[in-house]
Amino acid sequence: QVQLVESGGGLVQAGGSLRLSCAASRRTFSNDAVGWFRQAPGKEREFVAAIRWNDVNTNAANSVKGRFTISRDNAKNTVYLQMNSLKPDDTAVYYCAADPFGRGSPTEKDYDVWGQGTQVTVSS
């Protein structure tokens, strides 16, 4: 069973940037799609972005398009989420998840393995 570990979260001022990493262990996930989701306090978890195995097909929520970029380095078994022009509304716990069928969809149920999450806090 693959394990996913997120890192890179923290506190940043509005307009700043952070890069989140999602590292896989115990199994290569180079054929999986990987998605990022986030959950703000009192809100349901929502889709942020996803990338398929070939690093060409990506998908992102409208709220982050043009600001967030998802990428992957299969040699390092790691997926990244570069977040620029951060806003206070981006404050949430960010989770990465793996889809062994490689769909890269925005649907949570398509992902079978989840990381523990990393906190991102954007101050105004």
Give short descriptive properties of this protein.
7-stranded mixed beta sheet, 124 residues, 0% helix, mainly beta, 49% strand, globular, 11 strands
Descriptive notes:
The protein has strands at 3-7, 10-13, 18-25, 33-39, 46-51, 58-60, 68-73, 78-83, 92-99, 113-114, 118-123. The model has no long low-confidence stretch (mean pLDDT 93). Strands 2, 4, 5, 6, 9, 10 and 11 form a seven-stranded mixed beta sheet that branches. Strands 1-3-8-7 form a four-stranded antiparallel beta sheet, with no helix packed on it. A hairpin with a 4-residue loop joins strand 7 and strand 8. The protein is built from no helices and eleven strands. 0% of the residues lie in helices and 49% in strands. It has 124 residues and is an all-beta fold.
Helix segment tally: 0
Amino-to-carboxy terminus distance: 40 Å
Into which percent range does the helicity of residues fall?
under 10%
Q: Assign the structural class, choosing from mainly alpha, mainly beta, alpha/beta, alpha+beta, or little secondary structure.
A: mainly beta
- How would you describe the shape? globular
Which residue ranges are poorly predicted, with pLDDT under 50 across at least 5 consecutive positions?
A: none
DSSP strand tally: 11
* Element-level helix/strand string: EEEEEEEEEEE
Nearest-integer average pLDDT: 93
**Percent of residues in beta strands?**
over 45%
Sheet bearing the most strands, described? 7 strands, mixed
Radius of gyration: 13 Å
